[in-house]
Amino acid sequence: MKLKSMTVANFRCYKSPITVTFDDLTTLIGRNDAGKSTLLDALDVFFNDRALDKNDASKGGGAKAVSITCVFWDLPKELILDETVQTTLGDEYLLNVDGDLEITKIYNCSIEKPKLTALRLKVFHPSAEHVKDLITLKIDELKTRAEEVGVDMNMVSKTVKRDLRSAIRAKVEQLNLTAEDLLIGGEGVDDKSNVVKVWDGLKAALPLYALFKSDRQSSDQDAEAQDPLKTAIKEAIAAKAPQLQEVMAFVEQEVKKVADLTLKKLKEMDAGVAATLDPKFEKPNWSTLIKASITGDDEIPLNKRGSGVRRLILLNFFRAKAERMMRERAAQSTIYAVEEPETSQHPHNQRLLMRALQLRLPLKSGVLSPC
Question: Checking DSSP bridges between strand 208-212 and strand 334-338, what pairing results, if any?
């Protein structure tokens, strides 16, 4: 999956919507304080859920409508969305009229701790009765809907959401496709709705985003971003996302059996209490379970080294990744954003870095570089 474009509005210096299109190697050039780093930070917010603050809202703009929209192309042929079986974004009608995946995140930055208020897809989606809300329905609701429209339940798998949705659409036939916004997260979305799992599946398929910042005051986020091994860990975990989703689905299924039995017994003693309980699962952040760091003989971690050394190690990280991916043709999609790549480097090293970035052009990755 590749990033095609990003549109931001009401974010810092961008009060009016601005759209930036990307290619495999994209360079942002402009004067100081023109908003180059702002665009990279917007991508960090979108991909890595980086926290916003009140000052991220543009002055005089709509602080309650800070929005970041990303459009993706070169989409996976199949992916896992809300269960353990493969489906396609096209079959689920989750693409826009151009056949791209378009995701918008809207934040309210008018409050002390800004929050995500809407997560939506721009889709060319069925609007006919009985099919317009299929992606939101859980398995039992889908079975009920299938029976309502007259699906032959002997001819469809009753335990696979994808198959039930497909059978319902086939039975209805006239889908009445229209361009619309599909809300899949934020305020107004029930935590128990199936779209929550759909977003989990979509998020796992998105490109990884690694932002390597130029010299500035250290912060925890900068320290994480400037160690390339952390990105390597995320890439390795993302490559096994389908298997990890299977593990989580199995664990949830087994735990739910125990929880349901417990609630059943509890209902015999106190039905009122039992009715208020429901098992909930926290999604693990797999990348935090594995720790790795590049350190020297003096045990000083990379993010605590001098800027020149950090950049030198980063340069060779890019060179190693480019060489490995050219050899293995790895399919994992990653976007590397490098702020001022020439900072603290000898001209010889600057040329090596650009050569390393250019090697990545044929790959399923992208590089952003404001200078």
Answer: parallel
Does the residue 134 lie in any domain? no
β-partners of residue 21 are 5
Identify which of 244, 158, 230, 231 has the alpha carbon closest to the alpha carbon of residue 200. Answer: 244
The whole-angstrom separation of Cα 164 and Cα 130 is 12
pLDDT at position 78 is 92
Coil, strand or helix at 167: helix
Angle subtended by helix axes 241-269 and 228-239, to nearest 10: 70
Structure tokens at 347: 């001209």
Task: Tell me which residue of 58, 79, 80 sits closest to 68, measured CA to CA.
Answer: 58
Q: What does the alpha-carbon distance between residue 287 and residue 234 come to, in Å, rounded to a whole number?
A: 6
Question: In which band, very low, low, confident or very high, does the pLDDT at 226 lie, cut at 50, 70 and 90?
Answer: very low
Q: Tokens standing for 241?
A: 């996302």
User: What is the C-alpha to C-alpha distance for residues 234 and 286, in angstroms, rounded to an integer?
Assistant: 8
Residues 190 and 249 in one domain: no
* Cβ neighbours, 10 Å, residue 51: 11
Query: Which tens digit of pLDDT belongs to each residue from 73-125?
Result: 999 999 989 878 899 999 999 999 999 999 999 999 999 999 999 999 999 99
Give the residue numbers spanning the domain of 255: 233-290
Which one-letter amino acid corresponds to residue 367?
A: V
- What pLDDT score was predicted for residue 21? 96
Give 163-191 pLDDT, tens digit per residue. Answer: 999 999 999 989 999 999 999 999 989 88
Are both 190 and 56 inside the same structural domain? yes
Separation between Cα atoms, residue 370 and residue 32, nearest integer Å: 11
- Report pLDDT for 346: 75
DSSP assignments along 47-61, one per residue: HH-PPP-GGGBPTTS
Q: What are phi and psi of 255, to 5 degrees?
A: -65, -40
- CATH number of the domain to which 95 belongs: 3.40.50
> Has residue 161 been placed in a domain?
no
Taking CA atoms, 60 is separated from 17, 36, 170, in Å, by 14, 20, 49
Residue 155 CA to residue 146 CA, distance in Å, equals 11
Average pLDDT, the chain: 83
Q: Which residue has the higher pLDDT, 294 or 37?
A: 37
